[in-house]
Model the fold of this input.
Amino acid sequence: MRILVIDDDDQMRTLLRQVMEWAGYEVVEAGDGREGMQKQRKQPVDLVITDLIMPEQEGLETISSLKKEYPGLKIIAISGGGRIGPEAYLPAAQELGADKVFSKPFDVRELAGAVKELLSHE
Amino acid sequence: MNSSVLTLGLLFLTAYAVFSVLYYFVRIRPRLQSENAAVPAPAPPASGNEAHAGTKAGGTAQTMSPVLQRALDEWQYTFDAIIDPVLVLDSELRIIKGNRAAFQILSVNGSAIEGKQCYQLFAGADTPCPFCPMQTVRFEKKPHGQEVTHRYLGRTFSVSCSPLCEDDQVVGYVFSAKDISHQRNLEKRLVHAHKLESIATLAGGIAHDFNNILGAILGNADLLLYRLPSKERVEKVPFGPPLKLDEITEHIQAIKRAGVRAKDLVAQILAFSRQSANQRRNLLIAPLVKESCRLLRSSLPSTIDMTVAVPEGIGMIHADPSQLQQVVMHLCTNAAQSLGHNAGVIEVSLREIETGKAEQLRYHDLAPGRYVVLTIKDTGKGMSPETLERIFDPFFTTREVGKGSGMGLAVLHGIIVAHDGVVDVTSSERMGTVFTVFFPRVPDGSDNEEEQRKVLPQGSETILFVDDEEDIVTMRTRMLSHLGYRVLPATSPEQALEYCAKGEKRIDLLITDHTMPRMTGLELAAKVSAMQPGLPIILCSGYSEALSQEEAQRAGVRRFLAKPVDMRLLAFAIREILPNRNEEEQ
Done:
């Protein structure tokens, strides 16, 4: 199964790839929401993990677009927060359709477990 | 309007009074005294206000015509009406005459101030103050002003000093000192409060970065822990194959990279939260603007699109990095507030310009020259002409109560002006606002060194020059060498002490920066003085208020020069100090 990881922070994106590969998934990477949308349209994945605050297209906008175009797509939102902390951004992501949300830093096992759980319903 | 008239009136009265009193003391009194040498000098005053009254014209009344006496009394009243202390000094800095304000601030238990050296009363010192503008006035023979903090009196003064010349020789000085202690204290508190506001904005960006860094450290460490084989876990590993050696290295390197990022971030926070009001140095503005915008990005609402256009090759400016960051952050935050919850764009850009007639016509305060221009443009709600007129006024705000002090732009304006910069704003309602800030660009190299060398005093002594910034040491070594000096360059206090300890060749003068890591310029001066007693020392510093004059003198500092140090002043200061030393030795 394929997972799209969207994060502008190189180190975080690499970590997410390693965690997902460790969990046995194929990973596609994107540095922002716009690139993520392009990759999804080119070759759709089974699940998307997206950061929320990014310089180009924001995570919230990306989640909204993804859910509009791919209503059944599973999405996990992660955030390190900004001016008002991750707790202010993550509920908005859930409202827009994110299936699970995680604050950075997160436990990699919990994230891998959440992915497995979401994809097991497929 | 009224205050302008009053100010002009006061200035006129001040000038008139000073001139008249000077005329009397420099021209009339010596003549009267020589004409009537038999008349004894007035007896020293007894106490209190009488001491001051005794210095008035009354003491010489018996030698004057009533008309002259009346004129003199009128000038004395005017002189005393000036609210700032004004002193007339002879060439040895002895007080010939002081007004009432000077008497009130300098007199000890009501005793007369006339006849005493000004530095005794201002600093409780036996030698002239190293910070005194008089030293510059003596060489340049033109008025000079400087801000001076006298810990002895516990006050900060804006001091101005003008020479009194006869046959092109300086025979005395007129010295006025406006007490600005209260103003400086308020400014310090205000800048601090504003910095706290900016730190709150910055905190959002930093928290975001830190969470990413922590995520990388903890995530990689977890991956290692979960995947490394162990007796207890060998059967319980939930996913994937066991780790290979190169994967272990990769995770450890990722943890290290995240640690380095955290270290840089901490250095950045510390740089921003530094208390010092002014640590200006030559710096590249481009990376600083880019980094500030990157941090801000995370704390701005997602509806705002931020673009940063910084072309290659933008030159250096002379600035305090933390204050500069404060300017960028505040202007961007202001732009974001102007956009509110609406979608919009903030464009941050840098460029270099050479000011021509068009710029000078538009920006009246802009001197001709090369500038680095920072522009912050938003597509927000803009401002009415009435608001625009008042935005730099303290406490003016259009925000709701509790959403900002209204001090931000006033403080910012102060910072920009202190950097010899100019700020311009254009705005129209519903169209957005553009802030344009001009900072003088630092020249790449001194193009007129040869010309300078010809007009500046030269010498052949050995100078030990210390500054922790290599660029400054290189530049100064080149300049001083061109003036004929032998220069021992040192980029650290330790290296300077090594030169002294070697004692191979005589060092005639130490010129040192004050703010250096591990050892301040003052500490270095004290150590060098202990090794080579009597060695004259020039201390260069960006912020004089942090230095106590008493400490400076105790450490052997003979002159203080404010950074950025003007080459001409430095050249004259060297020649002023070195011959004195020869005289002392003779």
User: Anything to note?
Assistant: DSSP finds 19 helices and 17 strands in chain B. The domain at 2-179 of chain B is CATH 3.30.450.20 (Beta-Lactamase).
